[in-house]
Write a structure and sequence with these properties.
Length: 185
Amino acid sequence: MWEKIEHWDRELFIYLNSLGIERYDGFWIFVTDPRHWIPLYLAFFGFFFLAFHWRKASFSTLFLLATVFSTWGFTNLVKGIALRLRPNNTPELSDVIRILQEPTNYSFFSGHSSTSFAATTFIVLVLSQKTRWIYLAYIWPIIFVMSRIYVGVHYPGDIIVGMIVGIIFAVVFYNLYLKSGRRLY
């Protein structure tokens, strides 16, 4: 059964990666770099300070950082155990796929996916009582993780598992946030 899932994952990756259009390569390479999203990260922190007094905003910011760094650490731990090669490092795929980046670490599961969904889910949970528009923040991780398939470095399964892990970490940290922050409100 596991072989069937891996085969499906590989075939879906090849199909999605092949949809790439050379004219848009620069856009997707730009999108996949976390440094280019720094203004958005700062805006997220700013939302806390617009929505809450400085103590609660600072507390929310610290919990958001704890969520992201814990998710990132767990992701790297699993990558070191799973040792799944990235598509761009898989010899039998090199002639079939478009490769726009060539990281050499492992693929399972996507750190871009887990950390971006952890951050977004935590922010949405914290700010959803203040504005319904915060759900639009999910546009960011969706575009961000799509770029990982486009540039040839993650299978869809890596992305999906990363999303699930990120959401779970966000919910766990949000519950800890609620329990430990009651004295602030």
